[in-house]
Amino acid sequence: MNVRKRGIGKRLTELHRWNGWIVVVLAATGLLLAWEPVRGWLQGYFRNPVKQLHIVLGIMSGILLAFYLPLLPKHLKQIRRRPKQKANLIFVLALLAGWLISGIVLWQIRSFPPAWANGALLVHDLFTWIGGPYLVYHSIARLKWMRRPERRAIRVEEETEEAGSGGGRSPYGEPVPLIHRRQFLKWTAGAAIAAVALPSFVRWLASSGGGGMGLPGVEGMAGSPGADANRMLPPPTPLPDSANVIGGGAQGHFRMYTVTRLPTFDSDTWSFRIFGLVDRPAEWNWGQFLALARTVQVSDFHCVTGWSVYGNTWEGVPLAAVLEAAGVKPSAKYVKFYSGDGTYTDALTLEQARMDDILLALMHDGKPIHRDYGGPVRLIVPKMYAYKSVKWLSAIELIDSEHIGYWEERGYDTNAWVKG
Questions:
Q1: How does the record classify its membrane topology (predicted)?
Q2: Which of 33, 178, 251, 417 is 20 to 30 A from 354, comparing alpha carbons?
Q3: Is the overall model pTM greater than 0.85, yes or no?
Q4: 130 SS3 class
């Protein structure tokens, strides 16, 4: 029987060790994908390999969890008289299961409705903010140097804790301090982790609650911008439906991602043009672009990373009207879009570009689009994920062959249709 118990214990130890290292690397890759200071650096060709590594590690963690489940009843039996260990086990299993299920939804985002992905991202983030600091604390508390006192001293400490002593004398007649060395170190580590993690968690909690204008950037954006760096005068005057947000009004929260240095624009030098395989190339300055006929629509906005914002009221110039006015030549097959940052491009087929809900948007919920969020003009393609909605839109070119856009070069699917 003892040999069998030792065998089970050894397997549990191995599973714990392997899963511990996997969770460490999962946390590191997850932070690289989400942490704003390094996200921009990663957005080049490194982001997709890091994302794929994160997915593979998540699958490996799920496999280890599957190997562990048959051992769970025996493990619970072993620790039935250790309530702290049992509570820790249940909490960690809940974390792993939550991460795994929400991660699968985000991994297979195209197979689920946007509302599922939105919920999965919220769960994944929440479990990370709660579970990450806890696992760090759990790891530190179990380091060998935290348990270095003599074996006898440790035994005194453990037996005193079990007896519920708050000082006085141990079962061996020795004085026991109110706070043991191990307790002091654990409390100090916990306070330090809380001090680092809590402010960021509060900011995440506040930002995830929505509110404020936050148009997505290359994939999406977050937070409330300061003063608009663009100097676009006069600002666009909203149409009545846009000003009154009839039938719309953004519900949800936009997260802010950016991959290039934010450009600035001035109405005195800003221009927009359409060229390439068209009969009537054209270029507009800011005043002329404001004079183009605009329309208002209400549509949802979906990011391929999982979040969505519903009921946005967009106002802008229909792309189909611009193409018709320019006169598309028969040899044109694709429409290429240029960002004013000089880096970001993308493309649609001519058939896709003629959909009647694609806008060259100037306003969102009755307000000019902020520079940080793609203003003064950005593309809006409601039926596709947000990486197709090029921000800082400055030019359109009609071409006869397929163009691989910025994100497609970095592993994103050319087919960006949102399910449903």
A1: Multi-pass membrane protein
A2: 251
A3: no
A4: helix
